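The following block was generated as part of the benchmark described in Methods. Ligand: flavin-adenine dinucleotide.
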Amino acid sequence: MFDVAIIGAGIVGTMISRELSKYKLDVILLEKDNDVANGTTKANSAIIHAGYDASVGTIKAKTNVEGNAMFDKLCEDLSVPFKRIGSLVIAKCEEEKKILQELYKRGKQNGVAEMKLLTKEEVRQMEPNLTEKIEGALYAPTAGIVGPWELAIALAENAVENGVELKLNSKVTNIVKHDGFYRIFSDKDYVEAKYVINCAGVYADKINNMVNSEGFEIMANSGEYQLYDKNVGKLSNSIIFQCPSPKGKGVLALPTVHGNFMIGPTSEYVSDKESKKTTREGMDLLYENIKELFSEFPYDQIITSFMGLRAKVESQDFIIEETNESSRFINVAGIDSPGLTAAPAIAKLVLKILKNSIGELKLKESFASTRREVKHFMELSEKEQSELIEKDKSYGKIICRCENITEGEIIDVIKRKAGATTVDGVKRRARPGSGRCQGGFCSPRVMEILARELNVEMDEILKGNKGSYILMRRKTENDHWSEDNE
Ligand SMILES: Cc1cc2nc3c(=O)[nH]c(=O)nc-3n(C[C@H](O)[C@H](O)[C@H](O)COP(=O)(O)OP(=O)(O)OC[C@H]3O[C@@H](n4cnc5c(N)ncnc54)[C@H](O)[C@@H]3O)c2cc1C
């Protein structure tokens, strides 16, 4: 019997797992996919928002500002890329300047520090590549950028190192209430836990409906993006937002933590919660909108496009509460933007709810807040590189030529706790395949390393999700593939 079962290993589920791993609790993290951070956490703007957007007094506003302040220590402890590069909301006319003043006022009420309204000259000085049409901007220096899936992966690794059990490929299909505990069924077996924390993203409504007659509906709203090559990564120094209008927040542009440039997102309600596709209409909308921000834009430097799903609820605020109908069942639902920013504060809020129910929790003396540093070979000094190769020859072999990733780095991310088992899993942890050729050159080499390190056949290696085989062959009698893999 576990004390707590957390459903969903996105940024929210992994953050809560890691928070609870500080205490003497038996915790299990259940995830339907074959890796962590496979849902919305892997496809978003990656912004640590300052906090002027959310309506005053909402859970969103509170957890945004609190969560933002927690990122420096969190990312330093977990060796995750994070940069406070600041954000600018651009105004192009007097009407939009009034909206900036409203945002400024709301930011102040929400507790956002250091904001400033800038003149057009000040904006030009900060961002010379922006269009001449700009009349002013709201500057929020506390905004930042992070590696979202890297953070979730690091949190899972650290949580597992501190005793949390991570169960992948475990889709929760039913939950049955018992006296004092829940039996949580997956497609294969079940686990029992005294508390359930529902962090299932766009499926949080389904999980809630398994035990509660009252609930909420999660509507999936897609956001499409384009990622650009590193040679245009310095197009802006900060995060650039269009001025929000009744039509929405508009398209934003930003450098990524790895030095690429990104534009997006669109906003469209979709019925398919498994959809990952980008559309012609979405791409055209991005092309149209980006013209409003930059006088010249390097469209030909695009390297890929992707899409993420926002988990929208009618109330527009996060739902973080123990349900009235089922005690010890906690919903963490409707976590759309700024859920990534808010996640550390959401985890503290969930801990508070748990403590209110269980009573004081005992801290684990053995809790380790840091994980082994992730070494990026190309970022080391020549001396450090030579020392590393001396110790381990695999660091002397480049596998990904675009990003200069060595075999040693790939082996490391396979061997870590909550380590990579697929080509995409390796890509998200060590970055081979993230560059210009998008894995055209290195994918077969990554597959070879995965097969060797996991001691499986090459044709068992998946690109990403279940069933995404890359190589095909006829099945023989000696094959040990499970039914699941077919
Ligand atoms: C277009 C877009 C842009 C965004 N930009 C930002 C931003 O810049 N800054 C910011 O702060 N936030 C942003 N967000 C919001 C942020 O990405 C989300 O709030 C956050 O990723 C949600 O994390 P999550 O863990 O709740 O959901 P997810 O990452 O979706 O995780 C839920 C997990 O639950 C699993 N699951 C579902 N059903 C089951 C089941 N039955 N059994 C077991 N597991 C299950 C899923 O597989 C998934 O791994 C953006 C979102 C989108 C879509």
